[in-house]
Write a structure and sequence with these properties.
Helix content: under 10%
Number of strands: 29
Strand order of the largest sheet: 7-6-11-10-9-8
Strand content: 35-45%
Radius of gyration: 23 Å
Largest sheet: 6 strands, mixed
């Protein structure tokens, strides 16, 4: 009887659609290097699924991939009633990087209390070079400090690392970058951010075992005088900075070179004196961003080659190769000799589209990579791309990468491509017949039981 009631309950529910799909594009190899889309969840390919997720929100602005998971930060996501008080709490959503399935929500706390309430209190989520996740808020042109917090990726607990003094020049700062070890236990650490609608950049440095101080010969800020195009005199909205790993052990985490991408510019490479090192002046016009409305850049290496990924277009753009309107993609290019922008070779534009819905002006497009090897020991790179309110995708890059098949749907126990009553029956049969398979372990606790039946029901109902 209990089984019958359970099945009737599920039959009355709608069938869940696929959690993620692939972008459907077969990318041609370039210089013996291949790329495949592992999965994509966005407005263009899975609009119903994407639109139903809590991280499809204009306050969920940044995301990062780390150690098999994706972390998406949404400021003030939850409303919490405590006595007579109504509090806003920020949340980090933890997803499985293998398929985009939501693993858990991490309501953020600080010193045992709810963290949130302030404007864009978790505007940046990121990871340092030693695997420490961090959260940083937006700070206004009136704020004298920029706080940064360590994030526990299991509990959502925050720990204050530092309140970084801005000094005598105050500017609004949206997004933050970290290089080295935030804890300063294993290496030095450098932190940077950029002043919105200003010519100011901020930097803080700490040697291993030391506290943070101003990163420009003791000062925390520096005015940039050299832009490209030359008609630009300051950064635009939501600018981002991305520090580059040094080439030897002494400079590995020094962040002496960094890109700034600032809405009114394409990515520009600077050194710590504020001197412009490289820009798009000598870049083939076909490799220019189709529009500069979004900001984001990432470098990586593969098989001795140096690559750069940067935003090709935000909501509008025309791919010069196909003359087709595209939105929210990134270019992947190999840098020229001497790691120059001017000698870049375009490899791919990914994805074909994430979406074309305005995110209210967040400007940022998150992207980062993780390194690995295939079964034969060849290097592989996993690339993650996230655009607020539009979608996200994961790509594998390497000599022997393959795939692009539809990713497994969480809860699809019988493998028919959807989550339905048939999957509830499949789990129940496994339990009753004592013949479980790990595909029936829907909740990932290492065994097949009634909790997995409930997990499938939750997927269908939600």
């Amino acid at each position: 009887m209990k089984k019958l009631l359970l099945l009737l309950l599920v039959l009355a529910s709608a069938v869940a659609s696929a959690w993620a799909t692939t972008d459907g594009v077969k990318y041609e190899p370039v210089n013996d290097i291949n790329i495949v889309n592992l999965w994509i969840q966005d407005r263009a390919h899975t609009p119903e699924v994407w639109g139903s997720q809590p991280y499809c929100n204009t306050y969920a602005r940044t995301a990062v991939m780390h150690d098999g998971f994706i972390y998406i930060a949404r400021s003030n996501a939850n409303t919490v009633i405590m006595g007579t008080d109504t509090l806003l709490q920020s949340v980090v959503y933890k997803l499985d990087a293998a398929n985009g399935h939501l693993v858990k929500e991490l309501p953020l706390t600080l010193d045992g209390a709810i963290y949130g309430g302030a404007v864009l209190s978790s505007n940046t989520v990121g990871v340092d070079n030693f695997g420490h996740l961090f959260i940083a808020p937006y700070t206004s042109e009136l704020a004298t400090v920029s706080p940064i917090y360590l994030l526990d990726g299991e509990t959502g607990e925050l720990e204050l690392v530092a309140e970084l003094e801005k000094g005598d020049v105050l500017a609004r700062c949206d997004y933050m970058d970290v290089m080295g070890d935030l804890t300063r236990e294993e290496a030095e650490c450098n932190i940077m951010t950029v002043g919105t609608s200003s010519e100011v950049i901020y930097r803080w440095h700490a040697d291993q075992g030391s506290d943070f101080e101003g990163g420009f010969e003791g000062d925390p800020y520096l005015a940039i005088l050299d832009f490209y195009p030359e008609t630009v005199t300051q950064w635009g909205y939501g600018p981002v900075v991305k520090m580059i790993l040094g080439e030897d052990e002494d400079t590995r985490y020094s962040g002496e070179l960094f890109y700034v991408d600032g809405f009114t510019t394409s990515p520009i490479l600077y050194d710590v004196t504020g001197t412009k090192v490289d820009d798009f002046e000598n870049v083939d016009p076909a490799l220019w961003p189709m529009d500069v409305g979004a900001n984001g850049v990432c470098e990586f290496t593969l098989e001795g080659r140096n690559f750069i990924t940067y935003v090709a277009a935000q909501y509008t753009g025309v791919d010069e190769a196909t003359m087709v309107n595209k939105a929210c993609q990134s270019y992947i290019c190999e840098l020229g000799e001497g790691m120059t922008l001017g000698g870049m070779q375009r490899y791919w534009m990914v994805p074909d589209e994430l979406g074309a819905m305005s995110d209210g002006g967040t400007r940022v497009q998150s992207m980062n990579v993780e390194y690995g090897t295939d079964s034969e020991g060849n290097e592989e790179v996993t690339l993650f791309i996230f655009k607020c309110y539009n979608g996200m995708a994961v790509y594998k890059i390497g000599k022997n990468v393959s795939g692009g098949e539809e990713p497994g749907v969480p809860g699809d126990v019988n493998g028919d491509g959807e989550v339905s009553i048939a999957d509830v029956n499949a789990v129940i049969d496994m339990i009753l017949n004592g013949n479980p398979s790990m595909n029936g372990d829907v909740n990932g606790d290492g065994e097949v039981g009634i909790a997995d039946v409930n997990a499938v029901i939750d997927l269908i109902l939600n």
